[in-house]
Amino acid sequence: MIRGIGLDVVEMDRMKMIVSEKPLFISRVLTKNEFEVFESLGDKRKVEFMAGRFACKEAFSKAYGTGIGEVGFHDIEILSLESGQPVVTKSPFNGKCWVSISHTADVAVAQIILEEN
């Protein structure tokens, strides 16, 4: 049974500015494991990664029904399988989390579906 669906869109220009000018925001949003991946990327890919993870966490909080605040950014972790498929590796939800991330030059979008067992 579907518990919730969340969707979020992030503007790449805004995220590019944040990545270059607000390093504390990055550590506030990314978990230790996500930050390790982020640090291994080139500049353009860092912006895409950060925008995608931020959108995922916002989408998760919407699907969970709380918004960011009751659930913090570090309560949710999204990593990738070897194939590149994003997966939620940490969250307060006990069921299955389905995640999709996509981006263009202008926006990143993420969708989360929470499915109860």
Average per-residue pLDDT, rounded, comes to 96
The total count of strands amounts to 5
| Secondary-structure content class | alpha+beta
Q: What is the CATH architecture annotation? A: Alpha-Beta Complex
In percent, how much strand structure appears in the residues?
25-35%
In quaternary terms, these chains amount to single chain
Kindly provide the name of the CATH class.
Alpha Beta
Low-confidence stretches: none
CATH-wise, what's the superfamily? Answer: 4'-phosphopantetheinyl transferase domain
Topology pattern, helix = H, strand = E: EHHHHEEEE
Tally of helical segments: 4
Distance between the termini: 7 Å
Question: What level of helicity do the residues show?
Answer: 40-55%
Q: What is the strand arrangement across the widest sheet?
A: 1-5-4
Shape: globular
User: What's the structural domain tally?
Assistant: 1
Rounded to an integer in angstroms, the radius of gyration calculated over CA atoms is: 13 Å
Report the major sheet: 3 strands, antiparallel
